[in-house]
Design brief:
This protein is α+β, with helices and mostly antiparallel strands. The chain has a 5-stranded antiparallel sheet with strand order 4-3-2-1-5, with no helix packed on it. A hairpin with a 5-residue loop joins strand 3 and strand 4. Helix 1 packs parallel to helix 3. The longest helix is centred in the first third of the chain and has 52 residues.
């Protein structure tokens, strides 16, 4: 390399000391925006869709998935707050009007912003992992049979067994083990009793 090129690299290295904090703040703005979007998306999904999807799960799976989602929400919110702190700083004491005082403050602020961005990225990754974990628990866990109880229906013509779908003043509807739906007029039904197996 030439002496001129070396001199230019040395100048850029010296300038980096003065431009590092604004550059870190710009990075923090991007992290803040991304984390806020992820947190909002998670909150919307949990509030609008989550409850319907988890009601058919066994109690342990429902508790695990809910715990994972709450932990993910806390982590993503914490990451968002750390990114906001990194992007905008915190109200602090006045910076003394002096070159050395400003230099020390800038060095300390660069260290704080770097640390906050590192923790924000950790919170983001862990939050996403917990959301995926909650989804995996919800997907791989079979729904409990208690959500749709099996019943034995005695009619004028015989006995039928299946999962209870509907009972109203006009009819009783069950789904048989083969998957067929049977609607029985209420007048023909003599009794409906729980059944453990069909």
């Amino acid at each position: 390399m030439s002496t001129r090129s070396d001199r230019r690299w040395a100048e850029l290295a010296r300038e980096l000391e003065f431009t590092r904090l604004p550059e870190l703040r710009r990075q923090a703005e991007g992290w803040r925006t991304g984390l806020t979007g992820l947190t909002a998306l998670l909150a919307v999904l949990v509030l609008l869709k989550g409850r319907d999807d988890l009601t058919g799960l066994p109690a342990w799976a429902r508790g695990t998935a809910t715990g994972l989602l709450v932990a993910a929400f806390v982590l993503l919110t914490t990451g968002s707050l750390l990114a906001v702190r990194a992007a905008h700083g915190t109200p602090e004491r006045e910076i003394l009007l002096g070159g050395q005082a400003l230099r020390r403050w800038t060095e300390q602020e660069v260290a704080r912003v770097t640390r906050a961005l590192a923790w924000a990225s950790v919170c983001c990754v862990l939050g996403v992992i917990l959301v995926v974990g909650a989804l995996v628990v919800a997907w791989v866990t079979t729904t409990s049979d208690s959500a749709t109880p099996r019943v034995q229906v005695r009619t004028n013509t015989g006995v039928m067994c299946g999962k209870l779908i509907l009972v109203d003043p006009q009819q009783v509807a069950i789904r048989t083990e083969t998957g067929g739906k049977i609607s029985l007029p209420r007048a023909t039904v003599q009794s409906v009793q729980p059944a453990k197996t069909c």
